[in-house]
Specification:
With 185 residues, the chain is an alpha+beta fold. Helices cover 44% and strands 25% of the residues. It has a four-stranded mixed beta sheet. Helix 2 packs across helix 4. The radius of gyration is 25 Å and the shape is flat. This is LPS-assembly lipoprotein. One of its GO terms (cellular component) is outer membrane. InterPro entries: LPS_assembly_LptE (IPR007485), TAT_signal (IPR006311). One of its GO terms (biological process) is Gram-negative-bacterium-type cell outer membrane assembly.
Length: 185
């Protein structure tokens, strides 16, 4: 065996490995499809397609409370861009449970340093005008905020934390609905 044969073998192995990796990547690329895209459309994923149409056809019932209103508004924006509902096909019923805690307390003053806001949301997707449940789920979000001795600052910080938690949950619900509609639900 000459020294040139010893140099060719590692190069050949690297070339074979690269070829296998490229072939495997191309084979797996066919397994993915865009969530919003209609593969038959010329735009190929430009925001149209059956998933986007189904999301835009979801009627979100009013939810009690300030946090419920924020959650509903976020969902309306995420599902249909804030546009008006036209021809609803689905109804989304949502229940919100809110809880607050003070996990860290200053040992010298006995005052809380941080607080957390926890939101638990139960939701059901139903065909519009029917009682059958198509999709049922539960989402949870916990957000913390700093607590000070200023009352107004604490109220604003709590509202901001509630809004952030509502936004997180709205994004989770949208993702679940996307997955449901993308799989033919």
């Amino acid at each position: 065996m000459s020294s040139s044969d010893a140099q060719i073998r590692p190069a050949r192995r690297a070339l074979v490995r690269f070829g296998l990796a490229a072939g495997l990547s191309l084979a797996l690329a066919g397994c993915f499809r865009p969530a919003y895209g209609d593969l038959g459309s010329p735009s190929h994923g430009g925001g149209g397609g059956p998933v986007a149409a189904n999301l835009a056809a979801v009627d979100i019932k009013p939810i009690e409370g300030r946090v419920g209103g924020k959650l509903r508004n976020e969902l309306i924006f995420l599902l249909r861009g804030g546009g008006a509902l036209q021809g609803p096909s689905y109804r989304l019923d949502i229940g919100v449970t809110q809880r607050g805690q003070s996990p860290i307390v200053d040992p010298y003053t006995g005052q809380p340093e941080t607080r957390t806001v926890s939101l638990l949301v139960n939701y059901e997707l139903k065909p519009y005008g029917k009682l059958d449940t198509i999709l049922k789920g539960q989402e949870f979000a916990t957000v913390s905020y700093s607590f000070t001795l200023q009352r107004f600052a604490n109220i604003r910080a709590q509202r901001d934390a509630e809004d952030r938690a509502a936004t997180q949950i709205a994004e989770k619900i949208r993702t679940r609905l996307q997955a449901h509609f993308a799989t033919g639900g």
